[in-house]
Specification:
With about 300 residues, the chain is an alpha/beta fold. It contains 10 helices and 10 strands. It has one domain: TIM Barrel (Alpha-Beta Barrel).
Amino acid sequence: MNCNICPRGCNINRKTNTGFCKSSDQIRAARAALHFWEEPCISGSNGSGAIFFSGCNMRCIFCQNYNIAANTDGIEISVERLSEIMLTLQAQGANNINLVTPTHFTYEIIKALELAKNKGLVIPIVYNTSSYEKVETLKDLDGLVDVYLPDFKYVSHELSKEYSNAPDYFEVASAALAEMYRQRKAPVFFTDEERESLKKSHNVNIEDGILKSGIVVRHLCLPGSTKDSKAVIKYLYEKYGDNIFISIMNQYTPLKQVENHPKLHRKVTKREYDSVIDYALDLGLTKGFTQDGSVASESFIPEFDYRGIL
């Protein structure tokens, strides 16, 4: 069957060709390890069990994970191996399984999740996505994904076309987020009783303050794009209010591929970021996350060294 999982609609046979995402029909991943740099309700202090998949259906020109997005890094693994990795991360104390850039492997991931759940996987499943998703594909994840962790990159068609070759990003992401919200609704945290029950029944230690289900929407501020960042925050808050968390990120790091770009060659200034935060507060946003400027560093980009994959 030809691939039309995502809005790119490549309609190619991934057994013999690769489409926009640069991926075949074989799962490819570059890292699986405890990850401590997500939002507090995702990572906690124990860490999120992050599995970084290779390839991407967005491939933004400023991508912070450029090597794996371009599918130059990664190792092919089977559905069975992916399920084993999930169980290993749970045994290591992960608060959840964090599927990073999973879109193009959705149906292989579904099979792996079903296998792992049958073998004792009980921690929440986090779907960490660009939001460039088809609603029909997301519907197939209903009941398997507990926490959606989507980006909301742009409102501007011009920016989404220039930076991500996706002029329809806002329309697509809006529809995708609406489907995620239909499935998950407002955030729910583990109760003390639920955490104690999981500890007794499965020897799983989920921390206090970790999301059991819900949505955390991320927006990465970009240099020179303050106006669009404010438009994103306005849309999200007016549409969903306090029923979602909004994470306003200041970690953009200009990498080599954009060193000569007229806007993307630099970090976001303190003035730019503070302007977006002040705007969000003026709107009335209370359920959100912010970042200190010190996170804009290559040291916060993980090594894709195949840890946990081999």
